[in-house]
Design brief:
Blueprint: H1 11-25, E1 32-36, E2 42-46, H2 56-61, E3 64-68, H3 81-89, E4 95-100, E5 103-108, H4 116-135, H5 144-173, E6 176-181
Parallel strand pairs: 3-4
Antiparallel strand pairs: 1-2, 1-3, 4-5, 5-6
Helix pairs in contact: 3-4, 4-5
């Protein structure tokens, strides 16, 4: 079949394919990325424990971008400012999905008209506010080693608070955002 004869898939079908891929990669110790094009074709890239980069071909074709966030404590985590920047900076991407440990987060442009850099700054500032709020709760005079242990214990609380604040922020600026179980 010639490429011009191929049938574009409804978004609902593309989203279902994305969730199948999320189930494949959500517990991986390294970041993995799938890009799904309008025909339902999947493109794959692997990174390391902290980052994965799409190929140029992926960036030109993707309608849905999905990747995992590995975590030492096997906790799910939401979008980074860089993830959201990718969505807003790539007009052809309709949805991004981040997954980890049985949970996925999704985001769509919605009615947002802010540019990618402004959104990145807003998300980054929000993340720092959440982190500072949590870290200032540390007992005074705590040793560096004890502080690291204390932070690790509080990580689930930080991630949940980050998600709640991101829900508020995205609603304010017109992005669609949510969290669901895989």
């Amino acid at each position: 079949m010639a490429i011009s004869e191929r049938k574009k898939q409804p978004f609902k079908v593309l989203h279902r394919i994305a969730l199948e891929k999320a189930r494949e990669i959500h517990e991986s110790p390294i970041e993995k990325l799938y890009s799904i094009d309008e025909y339902g074709d999947c493109y794959y890239a692997e990174g390391d424990a902290e980052k994965v980069r799409p190929t140029q071909a992926m960036m030109e074709r993707e309608v849905i971008s999905i990747h995992n966030h590995p975590h030492k404590q096997k906790l799910s985590s939401s979008f980074s400012g860089e993830d959201i920047f990718s969505l807003m900076d790539s007009p052809h991407i309709q949805e991004i999905i981040v997954c980890g440990y049985g949970v996925y987060y999704w985001m769509k442009r919605g009615t947002c008209v802010l540019d990618a850099e402004t959104i990145y700054k807003l998300v980054d500032d929000m993340g720092w506010r959440v982190a500072n709020t949590e870290y200032h709760k540390a007992p005074p005079g705590i040793s560096r080693k004890a502080f690291k242990r204390w932070v690790n214990k509080r990580e689930p609380i930080f991630l949940e608070n980050y998600h709640k604040e991101l829900l508020k922020l995205t609603k304010e600026i017109g992005l669609s955002y949510g969290r669901s179980k895989l």
